[in-house]
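Justification of computing resources. Each target in the renewal requires a structure prediction run like the one illustrated here; the chain below, 217 residues long, is used simply to show the kind of job we budget for.
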Amino acid sequence: MVFNKEVLQITLLSLEISSLSTLLSLVIGLPLGSVLALKNFPGRSFLLSLVNTGMGLPPVVVGLFVAMMLWRSGPMGDLHLIYTPTAIVIAQVIIAAPVVTGLTAAALQALNPYLQLQLLGLGASKTQMVLSLWKEARLPLLAALMAGFGAVISEVGASMMVGGNIRYQTRVLTTAIVLETGKGNFDIALGLGALLLVITFLVNWALTWIQQRAKKA
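Resulting structure tokens:
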């Protein structure tokens, strides 16, 4: 029973952190990806290259960077965020935001280039134009959401480095799996792994269902 309660706490914390990280990544990635896709300005290609590079950032490198920033002797040490859920969220946002940004930019660039001009010609404001383009590209944008969530729910390196895998505080499913594997408790590790797979499948199944309904609309 105690073990079940602990698993429930770990699962809920994993979902809370991953959901918040994904949401913040959308808040960052959707506008930034839209600017990179729809605006022409000096350095745009360079920024796109940075975003595309960021899509493949090794989580352990992100964890190292965030840990150095949040460590007691680091630039943000006074905030006392190291080994907290907030630190994990920061690291996961850095991991997922480039994914969402890059896929958003790619989705909008794949639209008919005359659609933007047509919307503006019909009297749409820039905000209305962008919202209309998001609606037109809603299927790949939902794919970007799924990719962002997948990047954070399955991440372990950064979470371990900045969260510390502290019981009842920062232990999430992925770090718990690593811990139990290191202790030789392969049955528990397999159970947690199966739970993680089920959660990932259910979330992506729900998003895919929404995506397919949007396709028929």
